[in-house]
Amino acid sequence: MCGYYRHLIPDYATKVHILNILSNSRTFTWTSEHQEKFQELQITFFTKPFIVQTDWTKQFFLNTDGSHIAIAGILIQKQDDGELQLISYYSRTLTATESRYPENKIELLPIHNSVKYFREFLYGRKFTILSDHMNFKYHTNLQNPANIVARWLMDLSEYDFQHVKGKNNLLADYIS
């Protein structure tokens, strides 16, 4: 049930990572660490989310970040009073292959995956990507990028966005 509402739970991928590992084996030992993560997930799930209803007249901001464990994106809108309000969360753990990506790919991956995840919000709209990824411009200016990077850039070319370096990318750092 929590998986269905993962877009409302910050840091979902990290919270369930240790629990997902249990599902990969036939027998497992439930430890205090598993119990702690399970209770943390329960508390988060039954706490009122800090999410507001989407206002389609306001600009969207997509805050992204990645680590060698998980990637994350937060869809945000600026309210009339200037306050940033959360619309939805996205996070997932990395596959074994993805966890071995170099840092520049790990920072581009959440941009690509978050934009795809929030497609219904972002497609056809101008939005801003907030990311601490400094190599984004580097990737877009490469003559012959790696195949996977070329595919990601091709996917992103369908969107109208501005990339802004997020020096204080605390929200996305927290959920990845």
TrEMBL record:
UniProt key word Membrane = no
Mind telling me which InterPro entries this protein's record contains?
Answer: DNA/RNA_pol_sf, Rev_trsase/Diguanyl_cyclase, RT_RNaseH
Record domain Reverse transcriptase RNase H-like: where: 55-159
Protein's name in the database: Retrovirus-related Pol polyprotein from transposon 412
Q: Which Pfam families match?
A: RT_RNaseH
Keywords, A to Z, come to: Endonuclease, Hydrolase, Nuclease, Nucleotidyltransferase, RNA-directed DNA polymerase, Transferase
Q: Which GO terms describe its molecular function?
A: endonuclease activity; hydrolase activity; RNA-directed DNA polymerase activity
Please name the CDD domains in this protein's record. Answer: RNase_HI_RT_Ty3
